[in-house]
Structures are given as C-alpha cells and as structure tokens.
Write a structure and sequence with these properties.
The complex is a heterodimer of chains A (299) and B (234). With 299 residues, chain A is mainly alpha-helical. Chain A has helices at 2-32, 39-55, 60-89, 91-113, 142-164, 166-176, 178-183, 188-214, 223-236, 241-261, 267-285, and strands spanning 119-120, 132-135, 138-141, 216-217. In chain A, the strands form 2 sheets. A two-stranded antiparallel sheet of chain A has the order 1-4. In chain A, a hairpin with a 2-residue loop joins strand 2 and strand 3 (138-141). The longest helix of chain A is centred in the N-terminal third of the chain and has 31 residues, at 2-32. Chain B is α/β, with parallel strands linked by helices and 234 residues long. Chain B is 39% helix and 29% strand. Chain B is globular and about 50 Å long. The chains are: A mainly alpha (299), B alpha/beta (234). Chains A and B meet through helix 6 and helix 7 of A and helix 2, helix 3 and helix 6 of B.
C-alpha cells in the first residue's frame, strides 16, 4: 500500500512538470494550429538562462521568474520573426521550421554552456536526503511537494487568465474563429505572439523544476520531458488545456506505476516507449484525445 | 450626408482582380443593399470595405480616408462586419461571444448585453450555451448582436438570410429594420433574396462580375422591367 501511495505521489509531482510543458503545446496549438516541436528545447534554453542568472548571483526564485520572462520574449520573438512568415506560405513549413528550431536551440545551448563542467542546477525547494515527510507510509519529499504545488498554482493562474480576463477572452476568440476575432477589433497578431510567449514561459518553469530534480543541466535536459508532454497533449486532446493537465498527471502516475511494479520488463529504460506507444494508440483510435474537439487533423 | 463613400474600389485575391472599380454610398441612417448573383463580388465588396483584404481606391467613413486602415482598427472607427455564414465564435458561450464583440470598449458592456438579450430573447435563454450548439437562425442573430456590441455607426451584413428558414429570415430582417428606424443605424446589406431586400432597403446597388451595373432607390430598381426579369423573377 505504501508503494502505491509512493508511486502515485511521485507520479503526480513529475506529471505536473509534464503537464506544464504540455499546456505550452496546447496554448500554441489552440492559437495557431501548430505543433511546436521546439517547445522542450525552448524550455531547456530558458533553464540555462535561469542557471546563468543564478551564477551571476541572482537569488534562485528571482532567477526563475526572470527565466520565465526571457522565455516569454523568446517565444513571442520566435512567433513574430520566424513562424508567422512561414505560416503564411505553408503550414507544413512551420512543422519543419520548428524541428529546425529544436536542433538549432539544442546546438546553441551546447555552444554557449557546453564547455563548462556539468552545471549544478539548484532546486527551488529543500532537497537534502532528510527533507521529507511520511504520509500514509510514503515518503513525501519537500522538493516533490513544492514542484507539485508550484505547477498547480501556475496552471490555476493560467486558467484564471483564460476564463476571467479580457485577454484570455481574446485568446479564446482567436482560437475559435480568427476572422471574426479580427472583425471584433482584437489585435490578433499580438494575441498570437503572446500565446507563444506564455507557452515558452511555462516551459521555462517546467525546465527549472525538472532541472532542480535532475540536479544537472545538459542540452538533452528536456528531451524525455518533451516526449511525456507530447503524450499528455495527445492523450488530453491538443486543444484542451484541462485535458493536458489531467493527461500530464495521469502519465506521470502511470509512468511511476509501470516502472515501479514491473521493474523487470519496463523499468526505467523502457518507460519512454510506453509514452510513445500512448501517442501512437491515441492517434490511431481517438485522434482528438480524451477531452479535445474533433478537429485535430490540422496536425 | 454620406456616411460611407466608396470610389473606384478594386480588390481581389492574389493576382485575380474581383472588383473592377466600384462606386457606392451609404447615407447616415440608411439601409443600402447590394444585390447580385453568385460570384458577382458581393462578399468581396464587404471584405474590401471592412479592411479584411487589400484594396485600392477611395474608401471614406464620414469624410475620413479609411482605405489604408485594417479591419482590427476599423472596428474602433465604427464599422462592424457580420461575415457570411460564420460570424460567431463556436467554442465560446453566447455571453462570451457578446463580450468579445465589446472588445474595443471599456464601459457600458453589461448594460449593452442586457439590451441585446432583450432584443433577442432566445439568446438570453441560451446565454451559457456554446455558440456552436445554436440553430442557424440563433447563430445569425448572435453574429449580429456580437457586431452591435461594438456600437457601430455602420453595420455590414453579409447575406444574413443564408441557409435560414423564411420565417427566421423575416425575423432577422425585422430586427435590422427596427435598429435602423429606432437607433438610426446605417446598414450595408448583401442579399440574394431581392424581394426581401427591396422591401427593407432605401438604396440598391446591382453588382455583376465585379462592377455596379445599376443603382438607385429601391422603388426605381423595383420598377425597372429588365431588372425585375433578371433578379425578381417576375
């Protein structure tokens, strides 16, 4: 029983990191109908930026907030300078460009930060061996509790932004019918750039939390997280923010359960293929995901 | 006095020119209608006036040149456009559709929402329903109400009768007539149903393959034999 609680709790915490990155994918997809392959690498770059601020002596919490701000500028800048022009010519082109971005950002990180000794990424929360609480016999590490709380709070804020603010209304309107949004006087370009910005800022937080857990930064930091996040976005439905959160948490829990109960034939090495298999099965049998509306063929 | 004045308007899609120099006027407080067959360029005219597509020629609103102003900005200057077929946000609730229509405004939004709920009681009943789940007639009324939320001086309405039952169409037209007579709202209407449109409009433009081939008061157009034969079927 303790094992079950342990796996579920660890899974929720890791899943909240996937959910954050998946939410970024969904925000971009809803706004522009594009799948941003570079979402994970943007998050990775931003995590290095956070580390850099920290190395310059900025307190970690402030560094993370600055990193999210840099992420916002990076995301919005990418949309305005690269994506927008290509999207006018060809939708498939955007797909290719986002893969190019993936590789470009990856190399950039390796170039700028690669020659240093492995970067130690501090955690936002107490992460010493003794920093935990036993609840129902399971070990609740403060770090994992902190990650879960921060991720859930940010998601809550995002849902408030969507549901309660005028800007959120504009974002939903542009996602629903861009032409009428323009006719209602909504500055659609600004809304689209901001969607990419918000997505990248969430990625930055996701990366910082993940980096803190991993403890070491590298250009491959977000690779597995991105696979899990893609699986979450696919499972939840690419246009459903709520779906991305639920699917992200479920995939986190599922991953822990599978790897924990079947260490022999799934274990740590094979669990990534479970995520890929999830993407495959969902696309095959329910391409709109669990909570999405059935227009995902735009992918 | 002319609220909207269009001279030598040309527009098209890519290399294809659809409008070959159109002149038209909509006076303050008037309903003008553009009649024409499929492919005559009616929708293109509306899109060119509201700044949805690149155009050249002169377009003046109240004497001010708006030919270089994009759609997003024209809303603030008083033009609201109900596009053909899909003028609503299907994934948003009815009330959010109306709020979106008031995006350019700061005050008086909720009292305006109440006002249009009074004019369209069926929308009030469905205020929390997604627009996409409404019937065609309700969606058309929502699209018009959405446009009116920006408090326009000129309403562009592109074939509001499309796909609607005759009774519903009549209802939509009654609302337009009432807004025109009670609030002095100026309307530029595109319509295929000439009989209906002639009863509503005071001024008529007849469009054929991108040019205005006849214009005049509704009475003049209705009494022209050749036009009657071609467009009114009698």
């Amino acid at each position: 029983m303790e094992r079950l609680f342990q796996y579920v709790f660890d899974g929720l915490s890791l899943g909240s990191i996937y959910a954050l990155l998946a939410l970024g994918l969904v925000v971009v997809f809803r706004g522009t109908g594009h799948l941003n392959f570079a979402q994970g690498e943007m998050a990775m770059i931003c995590t290095f930026v956070v580390w850099q601020f920290k190395a310059w002596g900025v307190p970690l919490v402030l560094a993370v907030i600055l990193g999210m701000f840099v992420g916002f500028l990076l995301g919005a800048g990418v949309e305005v300078t690269i994506i927008r022009g290509v999207a006018k010519k060809s939708q498939a082109g955007v797909f290719v460009v986002s893969i190019a971005l993936f590789l470009g950002l990856n190399s950039l990180a390796a170039m700028v930060w690669g020659n240093l000794p492995p970067e130690q990424m501090p955690s936002l929360f107490p992460d010493q061996p003794g920093d935990f609480q036993r609840i129902f016999g399971a070990v609740w590490r403060y770090e994992y509790i902190g990650v879960l709380v921060v991720a859930l709070v940010l998601m809550g804020l995002l849902f408030l932004l969507f549901a309660r603010t005028k800007f959120g209304l504009a974002m939903r309107a542009v996602a629903s019918n861009p032409e009428s949004a323009k006719l209602a006087g909504i500055p659609t370009s600004l809304v689209l750039a901001s969607s990419w910005g918000i997505a990248a800022a969430m990625g930055a937080l996701s990366g910082s939390l993940w980096g803190g857990i991993v403890g070491e930064l590298g250009a491959g930091l977000m690779f597995t997280v991105f696979i899990y996040a893609s699986a979450a976005a696919t499972l939840g439905g690419f246009d459903s923010p709520g779906g991305a959160v639920i699917a992200g948490l479920s995939i986190g829990v599922g991953e822990q359960l599978l790897a924990g109960y079947f260490p022999g034939w799934i274990g740590q090495e094979m669990k990534l293929s479970v995520a890929l298999l999830t993407i495959f099965v969902v696309l095959l049998f329910k391409p709109s995901g669990l909570f999405g509306s059935a227009k995902v063929e735009r992918v | 006095m002319s609220l909207l004045s269009v001279r030598g308007l040309t527009a098209g899609y890519g290399p294809i020119e659809v409008l070959h120099g159109i002149d038209l006027d909509v006076n303050e407080g008037e309903i003008a209608v553009i009649l024409g067959a499929n492919g005559a360029g009616k929708t293109t005219t509306m899109r060119a006036v509201s700044g949805m597509i690149p155009r050249s020629g002169t377009v003046e609103l109240d004497g001010r040149d708006i030919s270089r102003t994009g759609a997003e900005k024209l809303v603030r200057q008083g033009i609201a456009h109900v596009p053909q077929g899909r003028g609503t946000f299907p994934d948003l609730s009815v009330i959010d559709n109306l709020r979106t229509g008031a995006y350019t405004r700061r005050s008086g939004v909720s009292s305006d929402i109440d006002r249009w709920f009074g004019v369209f009681p069926r929308l009030a009943e469905r205020r929390d329903q997604k627009a996409g789940s409404l019937s065609g007639g309700e969606q058309q009324m929502l699209a018009i109400a959405r446009a009116l939320m920006s408090r326009p001086r000129l309403l562009l309405c592109d074939e509001p009768s499309l796909g609607l039952a005759p009774l519903i169409t009549q209802e939509v037209f009654d609302v337009l007539r009432k807004l025109n007579s009670d609030d002095g709202l100026s309307v530029l209407l595109v319509e295929q149903n000439a009989n209906l449109a002639l009863r509503l409009a005071s001024r008529v433009y007849l469009l054929e393959t991108g040019s205005v081939v006849a214009s005049g008061t509704a009475a003049e157009i209705a009494s022209d034999d050749s036009i009657r034969k071609a467009y009114l079927g009698a």
